[in-house]
Inverse folding.
């Protein structure tokens, strides 16, 4: 079993915002599938073969809660000794997180493993709840210097993509091979 978690914020208000790039990517990959609200995981979920796709409903800053619940439920976390969870466990084979990245130019993406949060609150939450940063990440660039210079980061990520940005994002998504992150 493998879990692919796309980070974003629930609700129509956030649907086309930069912070929901993870959800946008997953919807593009999977097409028109029927997502199920999984209350146990506090996420929307869709299973295809041995891969579970989730969209946490915890809002971005608490995404780690939902990801941890999914890994716990499917018993994908390495065994711990005693009551203290082992730190720095390697989850690269079982977890991929798809998220926006303000440090990467719009139109770029990067697959990373074992890297810090770089200030991304959703990734900070995942690292905190999993007690490791050793998981695979598909970082999708949302940086747009023309717009970003006039808007603080926390406001920028919650704004909808401009029509021109959507075109660039769509082309970027076409260039990503889902096989590389499954």
């Amino acid at each position: 079993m493998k879990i692919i978690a796309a980070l974003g914020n629930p609700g129509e208000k956030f649907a086309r915002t930069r912070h929901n790039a993870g959800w946008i990517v997953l919807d593009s990959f999977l097409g028109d599938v029927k997502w199920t609200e999984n209350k146990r995981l506090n996420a929307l979920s869709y299973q295809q073969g041995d891969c579970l796709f989730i969209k946490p409903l915890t809002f971005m800053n608490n995404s780690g809660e939902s990801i941890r619940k999914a890994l716990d439920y499917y018993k994908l976390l390495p065994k711990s000794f005693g009551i203290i969870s082992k730190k720095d466990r390697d989850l690269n084979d079982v977890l991929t997180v798809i998220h926006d990245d303000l440090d990467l130019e719009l139109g770029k993406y990067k697959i990373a493993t074992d890297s810090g949060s770089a200030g991304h609150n959703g990734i900070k939450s995942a690292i905190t709840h999993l007690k490791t940063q050793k998981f695979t990440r598909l970082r999708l660039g949302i940086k747009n210097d023309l717009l970003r210079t006039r808007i603080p980061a926390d406001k920028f990520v919650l704004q909808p993509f401009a029509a021109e940005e959507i075109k660039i994002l769509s082309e970027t998504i076409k260039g990503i091979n889902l096989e590389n992150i499954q």
Summary: The chain has one domain: 2-181. The beta strands are 2-6, 36-38, 43-48, 51-56, 95-105, 109-113, 136-143.
